[in-house]
Amino acid sequence: MSASSASNINSSIFILMGFPGLEQYYPWFSVPFSLIYAVVFLGNCLVLHVVHTEPSLHEPMFYFLAMLALTDLCMGLSTMHTVLGTMLGLSQEIGLDACIAQTYFVHGLSFMESGVLLAMAFDRFIAICSPLRYTSILTNSRIVYFTVTILTRSSLSILPVIIHLKFFPYCRPHILSHSFCLHQDLLRLACSDICFNSFYALALVICTLLLDAVLILLSCVFILHTVLTITSQKERCKALETCVSHLCAVLVFYIPIIGLTMVHQFGKHLSPLVHVLMGNIYILFPPMMNPIIYSVKTKQIQSRMKKWFSLKM
Hints:
The chain is mainly alpha-helical and about 325 residues long. About 75% of the residues lie in helices and about 0% in strands. The chain has a two-stranded antiparallel sheet with strand order 1-2. Residues about 1-10 have low confidence and may be disordered.
């Protein structure tokens, strides 16, 4: 091993990867990535602004939507500097502490988004299956309780594995698979016993993401059963329309996560480009699509945006 290689391995600096073998195209890639981040920031800020300024949207469904938009906004902020830095050729290096911090935010925000989607599923379940009890069940105090629970679960449950990353010796070449840091990517470079992190992370995924997905699926089954019992076709369609945007948001969130997990677990023989592509879809697709989905599918937001833009013109 050369002296320079040994120095790189023993340092606390990691190299972020963009698209291996396509480095000469990074200036071109930076254009769509910049546009995507612009959509993420403008779209989610617009949703937050509309929910905040429109009194008719001050109800549980839109409070949870504002939480979703804020989560997506934070996801964009936590990854933009490394993704665009790599694409623009500004820097491909990141220190261990900064990498661990980014890992915490990326995974913590994913758990938060899953929790918010579960809360939104519960909201739709109560609105359709028990409409007369909606206001008595989803009171302001319960919304605050749900919010605190989601924040606590996402911020504290992941801390043990994140703290443990600080004390691993990283003796393999410090080359990461993505243009941002992930827990499983750092584990791949560690040269000590990683059993605790591996098993804890698996248990955490099962108890959060998988459990949330099962509960969301159950709520969809109950909602569908209730909708099918409605005799009026007009009312049946109206009830289904209120769930379409939420179902789209759930699919937009869970499909990339499942895809990235499958690639990391069973796709080691695949091209590195596949890993990079799935990683970027995982962090960028949900934050970009959610404001578009809710702007198109939610009539209250759509009408408020039209009114707002007409006043600006």
